[in-house]
Write the structure tokens for this entry.
Amino acid sequence: MTASSLDNIPLSEPAPDRSISGAVHDVLEGARRFRLAFNLGWQDAMLPYRRALLGPLWLSIIPGLWAGIISAVFYRSLGGGRPEYVLYVFSGIVFFQFAQAMLVSGTSAFQRSTSIIRNIPTPLFLHVLRTVMMNLQTLMAQLPMVGVVYLLSGGTLTSQLLLLVPGIVLVSVTLAGAALVLACATTIVRDLSHAVSAVMRVSFFATPVFWYADGGDPIRLALVQYNPFAHGLNILRDPLLGLPPNETSWAVCAAMMVVFWALGIVLFARFRMRIVSFL
Amino acid sequence: MMTSQSDMAPILVDLDDVALNMPVHTFKKKDASTHESAVGGTLFHRRGRSFIRALDRVSFTVRAGERVGLVGHNGAGKSSLLRLIAGIYRPTAGVCRVAGRPSCLFSTNLGNRAVATVLESINLSLALYDVPYKDIPAMAEEILAFAEMEAFAHAPMGACSAGMQTRVGFGIVTSVRRPVTLVDEVLGAGDVAFQRKSRERVAKLMAESGALIVTTHMPGTLREMCERGLWLDKGKIVMDAPIDEVIEAYRNRMKDKTPV
């Protein structure tokens, strides 16, 4: 590095603490390093299976076992003997677990990267994006098995299936905003990680993953109407079930995306500078 | 205030009245002792919360070409100061301005996974340092050669000894070139032969950097690498002078405090 080249480097001072512009800059800088986040997420999602004989196939085997048992037990009582019940349950479990993993791992997004955050100056949003990438890659590894179950259930390749692409994008961006909110909030209030885990376990039963809401039961109807996970599930599962897009679910999800990102940016701006000292 | 380089050389690091308070969680005022501690920063309590005053009104500048060694007791604020210059910590008060992004040699372990191969770990670590992807393959090859780990490139990190992992980590953190280089106690890695190689590599890094700020508890290394010394005591700069004078004064203070 020559003296003349050093003359041209201006002294820079970071953006003021708690500024929205500073938070947005961090998010954009983290997004710029998308490839790094993808690689970190790949390590998180896939490396645990490197020594396993079946490798990442386990990502599909586990929800498959769940779906198999639930379908066998509830086929008549909750499934009403519908032929697509196995597909309904399997895709429901895969998509619900995607949301669950995004939120639960979102609470520990910064803690998981403590050794990096404390030793290399990186945009903090990179570590939230790492979490998003980890879960998206897990979902991508499970989708082929969803396709197999879809075909075995008598599904055919229709243009309606293309709705899965914008559906996954919308739900992922919404969950990324929620993960940013939780990552910031949990760093300050540690109880949140336990609370989110507990809520997500309960939500599995409160979401139409393996039951239908068409029996006239008012509680189930209310859960489908007011449970945000139900709307996310509609967006992702309806194309597989040959159902038309549920406009309410798309609108609710889009609204949640705006709310989570707005709240996430505000929290990120408020606590960004304190995160490293809270790890 | 010492300035060993020409006043014409550009300023690469500029700290003006910087303070850094670090919160101490789960530590309450009632737990505090009245004893004055010889190590660490100053503990204080404010509005029911506890803090350590890691840096206290620190001001200095580093110009291009300067090699600065930080000395001080454990918890004096050396690592906090380096992380503040790196942009990892933000000052509670005052202004810290730095030319470009610094190169940080803070840890040789960046949370690499045991099942990841040595090459994968190197690639990922270089990406973390924001090295352009097109430069990574050549740099990874050079790091493997430096660490004498070519045969283990595709072996999992978990199969490597701690010393071998440290060699790789040291190779990674010393391969990135930036205007300002910050080094925190990662010198002296590996066996005797590797330590010699390490010193040569750091000397090369120093020659190619604009400015170097280093902390280590090895006075010989500080004398070898630096010409200017900063002595930190409980977060305050108590001496800014040629490195030999700073080390001598620091040693004399330590002799007074510690029975031999």
